[in-house]
Amino acid sequence: MSMRIVRTIPELRALLKALREGGSRIGFVPTMGYLHEGHAALIRQSTARCDHTVVSVFVNPTQFAPSEDLAQYPRDLERDQALCLKHGVSVLFMPEAAEVYPTGFCSVVEPGELGNMLCGQFRPGHFRGVATIVTKLFNMVQPDLAFFGQKDLQQTVIISRVVRDLNLPVDIVVAPTIREADGLALSSRNAYLSPENRLRAVCLSRGLLAAESAFRDGERRSERLLAIAREHLTEVDELQYLELVDTQSLETLGAVVTRTAAMCVAAIVGQTRLIDNVLLTPDPDSAHFISHLEMD
Ligand code: AMP
Fold it and tell me: Measured between alpha carbons, how far is residue 164 from residues 35, 135, 182 in Å?
């Protein structure tokens, strides 16, 4: 089957109904476009595990605050199409905002406290927008598996909770963060960075990877691990948060890391808001975050 580009929900439903009735397992990768190797890695996981992969490209207006970068968010639909085609995507869903949000739209998915932590402190309403659009897309696509990147860890935790709480019939797979050669986590927003700020941006991953390395060498004191990361974060213009949290509740960890924790950072470099995280897992056998989110 060659790749189909679909812009309306009825067309998407008709196409996927036919595939599902033929017994196909459907994988789904929701994105905001300007696709890069991080997205490609999710697509590869989906095509490896599913008969057909649906990718959505939709810059969701309801997850941007009025002061944020909705209008400037980078877009390159031609390149996105080429990347999807190259990676064996069956359906590329690219709806207009009016298709997704009909006049009078007023129903939302509210993720509660999880949505107010970490990034939620700086982006009020953001995770309500994310939880709502992902639920809507799940209802449109009805995938068997949906693939998300660990880079947006809070998003994966919230989506997994929504799936559980609302009994959505989909399994969530979380895939590792893909990084540039110097460690910077790939992000569509990296396109905003000037060459000078691009060089400074690497301090986020340097800090996290330094803490991860100390953890591997046996350091378990939370304050010490945070201090090791913080030493590298002097290059940023604004450090929004650096926290060591539980990977399911997102609550701040106690004095000593005794179970899998995530060290999460958000910072502004130039005008660009960047996030990153690493997992610190005491028991190497449970290193795969995927294992406790997936419900196969
Ligand atoms: P976005 O287009 O930024 O909304 O991202 C779409 C999906 O790709 C989300 O599940 C992200 O977590 C994932 N993603 C973005 N950047 C990366 C990365 N560097 N590595 C792995 N997954 C990523």
Answer: 28, 12, 37
Contacts of 283 by beta carbon, 8 Å cutoff, 6+ apart: none
42 lines ligand 1 (CB under 6 A): yes
Whole-number Å distance, alpha carbon 30 to ligand 1 midpoint, is: 9
Measured in angstroms, how far is the CA atom of residue 22 from the centroid of ligand 1? 30
CA 45 to CA 246: how far, in whole Å?
A: 26
Tens-digit pLDDT profile for residues 97-108: 999 999 999 999
Specify the CATH number for 188-282; select among 3.40.630.10, 3.40.50.2300, 3.30.1300.10, 3.50.30.10.
3.30.1300.10
pLDDT at 264 over 50: yes
Q: Is 148 in the pocket of ligand 1 (CB under 6 A)?
A: yes
Q: Is 92 exposed, middle or buried (0-12, 13-18, 19+ CB in 10 A)?
A: buried
pTM, full prediction: 0.95
Mean pLDDT of the chain: 95
Question: CA 68 to CA 73: how far, in whole Å?
Answer: 9
Superfamily grouping for domain 4-175: HUPs (3.40.50.620)
Neighbours of 279 (CB within 10 A): 20
| Confidence bin at 274 (pLDDT 50/70/90) | very high
